[in-house]
Design a protein that fits this description.
This protein is an alpha/beta fold. It contains five helices and six strands, in the order βββαβαβαααβ. A six-stranded mixed β-sheet has the order 3-2-1-4-5-6, with helices on both faces.
Length: 153
């Protein structure tokens, strides 16, 4: 397992959930929800700098069948923009069912959908990042794929 803090990103059309790992890559925890739009990339880069991140993990929302959707293209485009600006690698990882899992976790904690709106994206980012950390810790391979910043150009 590589050491170093990683940021996990759940890209939505309105909000972006951000999570971080501990230095040893064992546990993902929520950081904040960033409004999508002007300044979102810059805020994520500031957060990456603040925690001295070694990598940024962006969730790639695929259909259950594995096919790409409109959301997949949006997340991929966001990750490519981030990769062009970031001084650390950006990695795309499969995030199928992360939002469903986040909603289930919040419901089981007793919070209503209205109460959970401010944190649901952070919970989804935690699930995405924790999945990537667990995959890497399993020793099989690094999770997902590195984003080539020149692909979207």
């Amino acid at each position: 397992m590589r050491s170093g803090v990683r940021l996990g990103i759940d890209v939505g059309t309105v909000r972006i959930g951000v999570a971080r790992s501990d230095l040893h890559g064992m546990l993902a925890t929520p950081v904040e929800t960033v409004p999508r739009g002007v300044g979102d990339l810059e805020r994520i880069l500031v957060l990456a700098t603040e925690v001295d991140a070694v990598e940024i993990v962006v969730g790639l929302p695929l259909a259950l069948s594995g096919r790409e959707t409109a959301s997949t293209g949006d997340a991929r485009g966001f990750a490519e923009q981030l990769a062009r600006l970031a001084s650390v690698p950006v990695r795309l990882v499969d995030e199928r069912l992360s939002t469903v899992s986040a909603n289930q976790a919040i419901r089981s904690s007793g919070k209503s959908q209205k109460q959970s709106r401010p944190i649901i994206d952070q919970v989804a980012a935690v699930i995405i990042l924790q999945h990537a950390l667990d995959h890497e810790r399993s020793g099989f391979s690094l999770p997902g794929s590195i984003v080539n910043p020149d692909e979207g150009s």
